[in-house]
Amino acid sequence: MNIILENAARSLDKYRAMMSPNHVHLITQENSDYFAFGAGTNATAVGYILVRTIPKESMSNVIALEIDQKLAGIGLEEVLLDAVEKKLREKNYHTLTFDCIFQENEPVSKAFLSPQEGWGKGELLSHIYTGNLQGISRAPWVTKQRLPKGFEFFSWDELTTGEREYIATGGDQWYPSKLSPLQEAHLMNAQLSVGLRYQGSIVGWKIVQRTARNMVLFKTQFIRDEYRSLGRGVLLIAEGIRKTIRVEGMEYGMFVVEKENNDMLQFTNRHFAPYIIRRKSLFSFRKVLA
User: Fold this and answer.
1) Does the pLDDT value for residue 139 go beyond 70?
2) What Rg value do the Cα atoms of the chain yield, rounded?
3) Residue 113 burial by CB count (10 A; 0-12/13-18/19+): exposed, middle or buried?
4) Is the dihedral of CA 188, 160, 206, 30 positive or negative?
5) How large is the average pLDDT for residues 98-114?
């Protein structure tokens, strides 16, 4: 089989069926910080690699590396990575990272991320849980949560223009930019995502993405510091679960907890453990390109 490498965005008709809609969106935006190489024959896609670049920091990150299952492990992964590294070196990028998800108790290694090729040992970033929403929704801490005076929930599709501008200009001021509810807005389910106001001002949110007919991803949560110690973050979690469980056929919820978030890890072990059906971990591998 004669495999060729090409710019996947320029040959999108070939690679679209293999790529997720979000990946297509990322590489087709004007002035995008994402690029993708495709591997295929003249007519058929057999794999692709998607990379995010961070020009100001001369850093880059592999977002996805997908190979046709029949051809996995024969060296296409290395070929695509080599093409990416060559392009990044030409543009003077210093580092490349590759984040990989592993099942619980699965060895943390990939043949194509070997130390002999300059890749470092994987570093744990976060834990990924999938839970039974029906079971969680019946837990007393979900059913009995009530809003104190002055607080109100709102659906994200009710967000006003003024509130959106307030959030857009507030990154790294009153909330961390990495927790912005406006990131990947095209993936958000606005009807299921929940905001929290106190005396009319936004103080937190729980952003939800619908990933399948019967599953959601509880993507991003933020609560202002002065309200976190009062347990208002738990109110957001409970309301997000209550809203989601009303969707016909909804069975599963997935959420991610960073390794440093000890409070949420403890909360998960205390309140979610009986309902967790799958546990995974996200590890990051790093390679210096200089």
Assistant:
1) yes
2) 21
3) buried
4) positive
5) 93
Q: How far apart, in Å, are the Cα atoms of 243 and each of 145, 160, 182, 192, 260? A: 13, 20, 20, 6, 28
Q: Which of 57, 60, 59 is CA-nearest to residue 36?
A: 60
Residue position matching structure tokens 């290395």:
78
pLDDT tens-place string over residues 242-278 = 999 999 999 999 999 999 999 999 999 999 999 999 9
Question: Residue 38 above 90 pLDDT?
Answer: yes
- The C-alpha angle with vertex 90 and arms to 31 and 38, in degrees rounded to 5, equals 60
What are φ and ψ of residue 219, in 5° steps? -80, -55
Q: Mean pLDDT throughout 60-88? A: 94
User: Are β-strands 34-40 and 45-54 bridged in parallel, bridged antiparallel, or unpaired?
Assistant: antiparallel
